[in-house]
Amino acid sequence: MNAATRFPEFRFYFFTTKYDETVAFYRDVLQLQVDRSWNRSDQHRGTVFTSPNGTGLIEVEQGGKLPQIDGGFYIEVDDIQGWYDRVTAAGAMIKKSLGVTDYGHLNFKVVDPNGVEVGFFQCVS
């Protein structure tokens, strides 16, 4: 994308000692698209994933400790049942099964190798 058509981005990032395992989770289990990655040394590696709806990025970098996150992030998707079926079949650890919230979202949550919660939701009301 050239500078004239570039849009501002929203990016969620974190560092982890479980870099390879985490990249495999987002790439292979959640099947997120890799936007870009780099490997300047064993201590300076990173991968940026595009969110399924194209409105944000998730960046994972090699770090010296596990992330300390009390919470997680949500991704809005169109086919929540399809996402749920796909990630459960791929072996994702389900934190919250597919269900409707009291505020009108159909959602579920998984946990990545670092304990970071990743929620998927679809508005139903």
What is the secondary structure topology, with strand pairs?
Layout: E1 11-16, H1 19-29, E2 33-41, E3 44-50, E4 57-62, E5 72-76, H2 80-89, E6 93-100, E7 105-111, E8 117-123
Parallel strand pairs: 1-4, 5-8
Antiparallel strand pairs: 2-3, 3-4, 6-7, 7-8
Structural write-up:
- The protein is of the alpha/beta class.
- It has one domain: 2,3-Dihydroxybiphenyl 1,2-Dioxygenase, domain 1, CATH 3.10.180.10.
- The chain has helices at 19-29, 80-89, and strands at residues 11-16, 33-41, 44-50, 57-62, 72-76, 93-100, 105-111, 117-123.
- It has a 4-stranded mixed beta sheet with strand order 1-4-3-2, with helices on one face. A 4-stranded mixed beta sheet has the order 5-8-7-6, covered by helices on one side.
- The chain is globular, with a radius of gyration of 15 Å.
- The model has no long low-confidence stretch (mean pLDDT 90).
